[in-house]
Design brief:
It contains 9 helices and 3 strands; from the N terminus they run αααααααββαβα.
Length: about 300
C-alpha cells in the first residue's frame, strides 16, 4: 500500500530549557509581585502572585514528570514511568482550580470591604508581568500542540500575560479615578480567565488518567486504514489509551484471510504498525486469527 513515509512528529523537542527559564523568571516575578502587593495593599497583585506561584509549582512538577518519564522500565513498572506526565497535568489543573477558588473568595471579601491601593505602582509591576509571562510562553509555543503538559504551561503563561494586561488597565483606572472596586473586579476577571484556560486541561487530563481514548485518536479512522491492508478481513476489540502525554498504545484483534503463512502475517502486522504511527499510536499489540477459525469459534 503506497503512502507518504514522513511520519507525523508528535514528540516534543528538548523542553528542559523552556521549563527552567519559565521557573526562574516566574519565581523572581512572584517575589516582586508579593512584596509590591503588600506594600500597595493590592489584592489584584497578591492574587496574581499566588497564581504565578502555583504556575511555578506546576512548571516544576511538569519538568519532574518529563525527567522521570525517561527512566527505563522495571519489572514492577513494565511500561516505565510515562504515565507520570499525565498525572502531572492532572495535578497541575487541580492546583489551578484551587488557586481560582482562593482568588474568587478574596475578591468577594474585598468587594464587601474595599481598601485603598496605589494604581501607578500596580500598573508598573503588572507591565513587568506582561514581559515575563510573554517571554516564558514563547518558549513553549512550538510544542504546545504536541504534549498536554507543554500545552498546559503555555496556556497558563499566556493567560497570565493577558491577566497582567488587565491589571495594568485597572491600575491606570485606579490612579486617575480612585475607584476602589476596580481592584477586586480585576481579581474576578483573573479567576474567570484562569478557569477557562484550565478547564479543558483538567478534562483531558482526567480522561487520560482513566485510560480513555486520547482526543486526537479516531477509532473509525483506525478501522478504515486497517481494512485497506491486503489480507485483513476484520478488526475488533480495539483498545487505545495514553501511555504518556505524547505516546499512545493500542491492542486489537485481527481477522485475516485463510491460509496465510507466518511471513505474510508478520508483514501485515508490520504494515499496520507502520500505518498506526501516522495516527499517533506508537506501541501496538495485535492478536490474529483466520476467517475459518472465527467461523469455528476456535
Amino acid at each position: 500500500m503506497a503512502h507518504d513515509h514522513s511520519h507525523h512528529n508528535h514528540t516534543v523537542s528538548n523542553v528542559n530549557k523552556a521549563f527552567i527559564i519559565g521557573i526562574v523568571l516566574n519565581a523572581a516575578f512572584v517575589v516582586v509581585e508579593f512584596v509590591t502587593g503588600i506594600y500597595t495593599n493590592s489584592l489584584a497583585l497578591l492574587s496574581d502572585a499566588g497564581h504565578n506561584l502555583s504556575d511555578v509549582a506546576t512548571l516544576i512538577l511538569s519538568l519532574f514528570a518529563f525527567k522521570i518519564a525517561k527512566r527505563k522500565a522495571t519489572k514492577r513498572y513494565t511500561y516505565g514511568f510515562h504515565k507520570g506526565t499525565i498525572l502531572a497535568s492532572l495535578v497541575n489543573a487541580v492546583i489551578l482550580l484551587i488557586a481560582v477558588g482562593s482568588i474568587g473568595w478574596e475578591a468577594i471579601q474585598r468587594f464587601m470591604h474595599p481598601e485603598e491601593t496605589q494604581g501607578k505602582i500596580i500598573s508598573i509591576v503588572a507591565a513587568i508581568g506582561i514581559i515575563v509571562n510573554g517571554i516564558s510562553a514563547l518558549f513553549f509555543f512550538r510544542d504546545k500542540e504536541k504534549d498536554l503538559n507543554v500545552k498546559g504551561a503555555y496556556l497558563h503563561l499566556f493567560a497570565d500575560m493577558l491577566v497582567s494586561v488587565g491589571v495594568v488597565i485597572a491600575g491606570i483606572i485606579i490612579f486617575y479615578t480612585d475607584i476602589k472596586w476596580i481592584d477586586p473586579l480585576i481579581s474576578l476577571i483573573i479567576m474567570i480567565v484562569v478557569l477557562f484556560s484550565t478547564w479543558s486541561l483538567l478534562a483531558e487530563s482526567f480522561r487520560l488518567s482513566l485510560d480513555a481514548v486520547p482526543a486526537d485518536i479516531n477509532l473509525e479512522k483506525i478501522k478504515s486504514e486497517t481494512l485497506k491492508i491486503k489480507g485483513v478481513k476484520e478488526i475488533h476489540h480495539i483498545h487505545v489509551w495514553a501511555m504518556s502525554t505524547t505516546r499512545n498504545a493500542m491492542t486489537a484483534h485481527l481477522i485475516l484471510e485463510e491460509d496465510l503463512n507466518q511471513k505474510q502475517i508478520a508483514e501485515i502486522k508490520h504494515t499496520l504498525k507502520h500505518e498506526l504511527e501516522h495516527l499517533n499510536i506508537q506501541h501496538v499489540t495485535l492478536e490474529t486469527e483466520s476467517v475459518n477459525c472465527k467461523e469455528k469459534d476456535c
